[in-house]
Amino acid sequence: MIVLIVAAASPAAANPKYAGIVIDARTGKTLYAANADAPRYPASLTKMMTMYLAFEAIDAGRVTKESRIPVSRKAAAEPPSKIGIRSGTTITVEQAMRALVTRSANDAATALGEFLGGSESRFAELMTQKARQLGMSKTTFRNAHGLPNSQQVTTARDMARLGIALREHFPHHYHYFSTRSFQFGGATFGNHNRLLGNVRGVDGIKTGFINASGFNLVSSVNDNDRLVVAVVLGGRTGASRDAQMRKLIAEYLPQATRGGGGNLIARSGASPVLAASAWALPERGPVPVFRDPIDMRVATAYAAPAPASAQAAIAAAFPVPNERPVVGREALAQVLREQQASVPTPPAPIVGQEMGSSEIDAVTTASTAAEVATASAAMPSGWVVQVAAMPDASEAMAYLQNAQRKAGGQISSATPFTVAFQDGGSTLHRARFGGFAGKNDAWAACESLKRSGYGCWATQQ
């Protein structure tokens, strides 16, 4: 028995870089932890967050998988691993994502970050902001790829949280992390994750290595209705890292719960905010095509009073680092002006963060499409779906009713309601749907909203 205990502890004892954790992704219970909250360098695990923000941008309608990404000199010059994209050319968002999960391509990561954030530094700010919203309190990003930067740090626990969030929030995109190979420019790039196809139940997520970090790996394992996310950081070699991961899976997967559970990220106390309003349109990137002005519905982030004009709304929704001009912004504003004659002007988006806001006792529900109940109505409990936050309660309710008519499906029988809260001295109103039987119904409702073009977030109250 003593020998077994020493063997189990040996990775941490013999290797000062080592950190590991195994979490039951259905309950949030930590099944194993060693140095799980100690600071470590993420290396290419960074690209998990790059992928998270890409998925978020796709779902928000900012980009499509076919959108063309311009390749800058900086992106093309990144050191390996890379796929060899040339400055002045373009790749699609789809190609960039597949390059990240297989080759762990630094050139594609930088190009994607510049495209989504306007600059890589701005994108890194968005990555860190998203980390905070997910409860990754000890993670800071400084680039989109994970190449050495002394200020780019994380923990095993934070990486496990991100791995869970990717599966929970983007089940429709998660299959990218199971990609075995990717063809580009006449070459075929295999996935660096050697556990895919070799360890039962492993369906992702990501490997990483720089000298300062050692060999890192985040694995998601889904087998026999048990689901765990495991993290190994600081392996001396890729082989020893993989061996440790195999050992953790074999030992702790049988201890995981079968079925049940909820959204761990929502229960963590993280701010349920989409950062869609923070995206900057790249100077040479495509202008998103909005179906109608109500698509300014990316008002799922929060801040002070809304801009008064359509042009100001565009400027607020698409901030540009260093005040550089954005090609296409005026064109987009013109599209909105032309459509205003036939479509009612929606509430302008509210941008910023919800950090540190506090609820106040003011809840409004809608009893019918034409009548709004008083603020004394009871707040629906359990799982809810949030779609926006606005300065006016009646506008927020009208927004919910419009979304309900358009989305149908699971949303048609949901209860629209608003919750007022204080943010920086201003009162805002969260626009939410409630009345769901549980997590699965709430997530299905959110998917219906997304298919109709509405950003949303399912969470527990």
Describe this structure in words.
- Residues 377-461 form the SPOR domain.
- There is one protein chain.
- The protein has 461 residues and is an alpha+beta fold.
- It folds into 2 domains: 2-261, DD-peptidase/beta-lactamase superfamily (Beta-lactamase); 271-461, Sporulation related repeat (Alpha-Beta Plaits, 2-Layer Sandwich).
- The chain contains 13 helices and 14 strands.
- β8 (214-223) and β9 form a beta hairpin.
- α2 runs antiparallel to α4 and α4 crosses α5 (106-117).
- The protein is globular.
Primary descriptors:
461 residues, alpha+beta, Beta-lactamase, Alpha-Beta Plaits, five-stranded antiparallel sheet, 13 helices, 14 strands
Describe the structure in brief.
The protein has helices at 2-14, 46-59, 73-76, 93-101, 106-117, 120-133, 156-169, 238-252, 264-267, 310-317, 329-339, 393-407, 439-451; strands spanning 19-24, 30-34, 68-70, 90-92, 181-184, 187-190, 202-210, 214-223, 226-235, 358-365, 383-390, 415-423, 426-434, 457-460. With 461 residues, the chain is an alpha+beta fold.
